[in-house]
Amino acid sequence: MDIVYRAARAEDVPACIDIRGKTRENAFSAEQLAAVGVTLETWTEAVRDGSLPGYVATVGDRIAGYCYGDKETGEIVVLALLPDYEGHGAGKTLLNLMVRDLKALGYARVFLGCATDPAVRSYGFYRHLGWSSTGLLDDAGDEVLEYFP
């Protein structure tokens, strides 16, 4: 599978919102995202103004997944892949690209919210890559994990 990675652009946001609703676990529809304040307009503007940098993985002309980070806090905000592209290293690569950029911005520690249930794939995924629990939960009830690049 020929996966190409590139910086996310504002025009990628509609596809990213679509993908978010199609992930194997922790899917959020456009309506569910809007209920927590994430809309096409807010996400597009954050990408455009640089406050939400990210990367997309493409296969041909299709976006297969993405990862975005918060430039102001050092948080990995979201990592999402279409199920057909899991297991090919795309998630790890997208995450590493975003961590690298946050480190370049001066963050010695990056963090994210992760499911607390060991049966959920992300629970093991992040820990396998060296992320560790802070012992804290975020406002969504997710466990806060941290990584020191």
Instruction: Supply the helix-strand structural class.
Output: alpha+beta
Mean pLDDT: 95
**Proportion of residues in helical segments:** 25-40%
Q: How much strand content do the residues show? A: 25-35%
Q: What characteristic shape results from the CA principal axes?
A: globular
Count of DSSP E strands?
A: 7
N-to-C SSE string, H for helix and E for strand: EHHHEEEHEHEE
Number of DSSP helical runs? 5
Radius of gyration: 14 Å
Enumerate the spans where pLDDT stays under 50 for 5 or more consecutive residues.
Answer: none
**Sheet with the most strands: spatial strand order:** 1-2-3-4
Distance between termini? 28 Å
Overall description:
There is one protein chain. The chain has about 150 residues and is an alpha+beta fold. It contains 5 helices and 7 strands. The strands form 2 sheets. The chain has a 4-stranded antiparallel beta sheet with strand order 1-2-3-4, with helices on both faces. Strands 5-7-6 form a 3-stranded antiparallel beta sheet. Strand 6 and strand 7 (about 145) form a beta hairpin. The longest helix is centred in the middle third of the chain and has 15 residues, at about 90-105. The mean pLDDT is about 95.
